[in-house]
Design brief:
alpha+beta; 39% helix
């Protein structure tokens, strides 16, 4: 479903919301003009925070600025 009229949205709200929940986006029209867009929520920032917290549990903080004496294999 790409575009839906306001009147049709009112009649089919639950089925439209289920489609959006599964990743679809819907343009809502009023008298043939797009007035809004329904899209699924973006949880990327929230998910990134959770991953960073998980990494932080096992990460070791050290000096990451100073040069190292070991040559990397990629440079050879």
């Amino acid at each position: 479903m790409d575009t839906i009229a306001v009147s049709e949205l009112r009649a089919n709200l639950m089925s439209v919301l289920k489609e959006i929940q599964h990743g679809s986006s819907v343009n809502i029209t009023s008298r043939g003009v797009v007035v809004a867009k329904l899209v699924p929520p973006d949880y990327s920032q929230e998910n990134a925070r959770k991953k960073l917290l998980e990494i932080g549990k096992s990460a070791k903080i050290g000096d990451i600025v100073s040069p190292i004496d070991t040559q990397w294999e990629a440079l050879n």
